[in-house]
Specification:
Layout: H1 2-30, E1 64-65, H2 81-92, H3 99-102, E2 108-109, E3 113-115, E4 118-120, E5 128-129, H4 142-153, E6 159-161, H5 167-173, E7 181-186, E8 193-199, E9 205-210, E10 212-220, E11 224-229, E12 234-239, H6 240-249, E13 254-257
Parallel strand pairs: 2-5
Antiparallel strand pairs: 1-10, 3-4, 6-13, 7-10, 7-13, 8-9, 10-11, 11-12
Length: 259
């Protein structure tokens, strides 16, 4: 009897031991594995680095200002902004030039007259209307300046017709290549108003854009364009939208001189 009791006790102990092993094994399998140790082949992950516009390196063409020596048209050339701007551009590309040296090559006309009650005058796309030395004059447009520069340099390949291009395009194509650009706008970038009108030689009626002004585009940044202004003899800056509007109003006229 005692032997049977002892055998039952032994069986109970063995069963308890086996059950404990089974439960323990289940608990080990269910427990999440510990994280693997960091190695060179499996580095610990860190928070991603977020690169913003503020941390990006700025492009070297995001802010360009050419060091072009400014010239002032006053008092000698009160209406000669176009010739003075051209002189600045010539000097920058290595051509020794004075305003007085350019003037003999400038096509000019003072052919204004009345006929049967109608006022006639020259075409500013063909001639400088008046004399740059006189306050009683108007000015000229890009084709006249190109003709003057071609005659002065004796090389039409160095004078680029950049008419029709936007200011951003001029900046990317020429300012970024270290070339200033003659552009047409207005004095102080003020709104264009209607000036004197006359009949051109081809019979078209022409209205002079009062305030017409030629400047030398020398740089830009995110908010402004920079110009050498013959009227002030200094470098000036205008908000992009304002300068682009005046440039558009004057017909997107632009001239570039190559080295």
């Amino acid at each position: 009897m005692k032997l049977l009791h002892l055998l039952c006790v032994v069986v109970a102990i063995v069963m308890a031991f086996l059950l404990g092993l089974l439960v323990g094994q289940q608990l080990v399998v269910a427990h999440p594995a510990p994280p693997a140790a960091a190695t060179e082949s499996a580095p610990l992950l860190s928070s991603p680095t977020v690169t913003t516009a503020a941390t990006l390196p700025s492009s070297p063409t995001d802010n360009v200002r050419l060091s072009v020596e400014p010239l002032c048209q006053h008092p000698a050339y009160p209406t000669g902004c176009e010739v003075v701007a051209a002189t600045m551009a010539l000097r920058y590309v290595g051509v020794a030039a004075e305003v007085e040296e350019l003037l003999p090559h400038l096509p000019t006309s003072r052919n204004w007259y009345w006929y049967n009650g109608v006022f006639y005058g020259p075409d500013p796309a063909v001639h400088f209307c008046g004399d740059p030395r006189s306050k009683q004059s108007y000015g000229c447009f890009a084709p006249v300046v190109r003709a003057m520069l071609t005659a002065f340099l004796g090389d039409d390949c160095r004078v680029v017709d950049a008419d029709g291009q936007t200011l951003p395009r001029l900046c990317r194509r020429y300012i970024d290549s270290d070339l200033p650009v003659l552009v047409w706008g207005t004095l102080g970038m003020a709104p264009v108003t209607a000036g004197r009108s006359w009949i051109l030689p081809d019979g078209r009626r022409f209205v002079w854009p009062a305030g017409e002004h030629c400047l030398l585009l020398v740089g830009y940044d995110e908010e402004r364009y920079y110009f050498n202004d013959p009227d002030t003899g200094r470098q000036v800056a205008y908000p992009k939208e304002q300068a682009e509007q005046r440039y558009e109003e004057l017909g997107r006229q632009a001239v570039v001189i190559l080295p």
